[in-house]
Amino acid sequence: MVKTLAALPDGPVTVSGWVETVRDQKKVQFVILRDESGAVQLVNPATREVEEGADAAASARLATTEAISALAHGSFITVTGELKHDERVKLGGLEVKIASLDVVTEANPETPIAADSSLDKRMDWRFLDLRHPKQALIFRIQTTFLHALRGVWVEKGLIEIQTPKLMASASESRAELFEVEYFEGKAYLAQSPQFFKQMAQAAGFGGVFEVGPAFRADPSFTSRHATEFTSIDTEISWINSHEDVMALHEELMVAGFTAVVERHGAEIAELFGIELQVPSRPFPRIPLAEAKQIVADRGYVIPRADDDMDPEGERQISAYVKETFGHDFVFLTDYAASIRPFYHMRHEGDASLTNSYDLIYNGVEISTGAQREHRIDVLVEQARDKGMDPEELEFYLDFFRYGVPPHGGFGMGLARVLMLMLGESSIRETTYLFRGPTRLLP
Ligand code: AMO
């Protein structure tokens, strides 16, 4: 349970927490004790020796002094004493004069990580790394953000689903597929809930959401890729185009950012040095072809032969949007069919373009969304177009053979949103336990 140190009244208290620092002076000892709600300064007038035959109280004071001198950073202790609110005390203005002290669990005296340890080393010792208030704040923000999104979904009557993570087929590109032994056969780890969230539209649910794990066998070591990540997914029926999906997407982001700014704005400013702003609606929208032209005009030509934005292109278009519209978000729309999955609906009258978008935030893609193709004959054709065997997709294609409304949705990487919101350099910082090509521990 989360306690609040600051809310304790003056007077006798018992407090528990981790030893952050010990200042062992000749006449007085100071300990900074921290729990999940903050810090308190413990003070103990030192008793360095007692005369032979001294009373039990004097011996106890000596024992407490010696215990404090021997305290290792990170030990978990419980202290009883007198609490006093005193503004002069740094780190929260709380001081407890120690009456008794109990070392509940002692920490090894050598701390394996320090403030300047490498990210990799910190990840090896993630539980110690997470003790820093800045790290814990990331996950408080995540809690607030997701809670606000859920508020919007629930208010609108969407249904929460949990889709299976063991699948018989790929749900995105076959290139990034984890294969696992499954009794006598094979199974695949879900790359996204794509097919199952669409199934809910065929089932007549109207609208669904899921916050759950997604797996990608991506061997890259970038700051934005993990082999397992938390995906925020939603899918809604009765849409006219991807515009309706973008409108919901904006509403969710505004709700999430509003809650985070209201609840954590001051702490974010203090610990991350960022004045987080709630984005204004509508977010700017730029068709991809136009965005590429803008980026080229700024002197950056996307080197890849295909039609996608690359990371530098994303940074450039974000810089342009910030300069031109003062906005941190931009929807890039109307991606070429050649670089989109078979299930994206194509433009009426121009099959080379799709009713789709990516949401870019502070220079990085955080989301992909689209209207889906719901006409079975067109869908089968588009699958064939992508070199896929419709027979392998029978279970999915069946959804479209018994009546399905026009629908669409998006998937968004949770750790990427937090990374960009807090100006962090990698999703390793904003993932509770990161998984990458060479990391399966802890
Ligand atoms: P996409 O493959 O673009 O689309 O993924 C959606 C979002 O998920 C996040 N993401 C990742 N995050 C960390 N590590 C990865 N390896 C990784 N891969 C993707 C990104 C990305 O924008 N089914 C579609 C979505 C939809 O159309 O509804 C999909 O999965 O933030």
Fill in the keyword field for this structure.
Asp/Asn-tRNA-synth_IIb, five-stranded mixed β-barrel, OB fold (Dihydrolipoamide Acetyltransferase, E2P), BirA Bifunctional Protein, domain 2, 12 helices, 442 residues, binds aspartyl-adenosine-5'-monophosphate, 18 strands, 31% helix
Class computed from helices, strands and strand pairing: alpha+beta
> What strand line-up does the widest sheet have?
6-10-11-18-17-16-13-12
How would you name the CATH homologous superfamily of the largest domain? Bira Bifunctional Protein, Domain 2
Count of individual domains? 2
Count of helical regions: 12
Order of helices and strands: EEEHEEHHHEEEEHEEHEHHEEEEEHHEHH
CATH class of the largest domain: Alpha Beta
> Compounds present?
aspartyl-adenosine-5'-monophosphate
Keywords: Aminoacyl-tRNA synthetase, ATP-binding, Cytoplasm, Ligase, Nucleotide-binding, Protein biosynthesis
Binding site for ATP: 365, 413-416
Domain Aminoacyl-transfer RNA synthetases class-II family profile: 139-442
EC number: 6.1.1.12
Polypeptide structure, described:
The chain has 442 residues and is α+β, with helices and mostly antiparallel strands. It has 2 domains: 2-105, Nucleic acid-binding proteins (OB fold (Dihydrolipoamide Acetyltransferase, E2P)), CATH 2.40.50; 123-421, 2-Layer Sandwich (BirA Bifunctional Protein, domain 2). The chain contains 12 helices and 18 strands. The strands form 4 sheets. The chain has an 8-stranded mixed sheet with strand order 6-10-11-18-17-16-13-12, sandwiched between helices. The structure holds aspartyl-adenosine-5'-monophosphate (AMO). Aspartyl-adenosine-5'-monophosphate binds next to strand 11, strand 17 and strand 18.
